[in-house]
Amino acid sequence: MEKADIKSMTIGELETFVTEVLGEKKFRASQLYEWMHVRLAGSFDEMTNLSKALREKLHQNAYLAVLTQARCLVSSIDGTRKYLFRLSDGNVIESVLMKYKFGNSVCISSQVGCRMGCRFCASTLDGLARNLTASEMLDEVYSIQRDIGERISNVVIMGSGEPLDNYDQVLRFLKLISDEKGLHISQRNLTMSTCGLVPEIMALAKEQLQITLAISLHAVNDERRRELMPIARRYTIAQILDACRYYYEQTKRRITFEYSLARGVNDSSEDARALARLLKGLNCHINLIPINPVKERDFEQSDPVSVQNFKNKLEKYGGNVTIRREMGRDIQAACGQLRKSYTDNLLGKEV
Questions:
Q1: Is the entire prediction scored with pTM above 0.90?
Q2: N or C terminus of the chain: which is more exposed, having fewer CB within 10 Å?
Q3: To the nearest 5 percent, what fractions of the chain are helix, strand and coil?
Q4: CB–CB of 322/110 below 8 Å?
Q5: Catalytic residue among 24, 94, 140, 162
């Protein structure tokens, strides 16, 4: 019999499991839920107010998704921590801890690898291995909180993978991480980035969550976007913007548009003007990202003067704009870089 993934269960599902599968009283589910999602227990044996007999039943019928830390790199520049976690099947994923004045923010992965194929991202280089479960995503956050001994206040799903390509598990993660009986991170402190899967954006809007939706745009027309992001062959910018308008209508949450700046590719004054025209009338924020160079790709980061000029031009046309602060550059903190170098070393490839 396959063991149950109880960390991915809602409190209602856990009550059913405890009463019908384990034959225990309903209140045991609340105890178990608190151990997993508040006390962040790393094993059933840590759950000391559960009887030895119940813990044995749990060992026999369930498993507790707990990640193993394979590596942790700490930036000497800003203290950013890049974690490489090993999953139970041997796959590895990345997570990043960034410390800000407003609190501790964690960037998590939603898949092992990615199949979207964006040309500037290291996560896609070896394709998609598999989706992560809600419990594995939760334990990215929990493992880091256990490691630093400080509360995590913000979570961004911007690591390896396309979150909306793993829709059901990501939605379950969002509801569990914000559950008032668990870690209870406010939905307003949760951000999810997508390359623009239109049907899934529409479905997410109907959930009426209070998370921030971030759209990876990176180009001002479909022709250029198709060169950078294969998903653009399936959905046009116009279709994505229509989905964003629907998302805002349903949630009243401002949309973030991410725009990675690559030298000579999408960073001209005309690109800035076109971007401002494209997003005019949308309740949105534009996040400019100096692109992270990836050795397997030939993109170069726009110089600081060009980035600032791009920002100034957008603001001139009424845009709400910030330039993302670069963090952890000395520790391969961009999506997929550490995992790629780690797996290449295991396979004996030249790095």
A1: yes
A2: N
A3: 40, 20, 35
A4: no
A5: 94
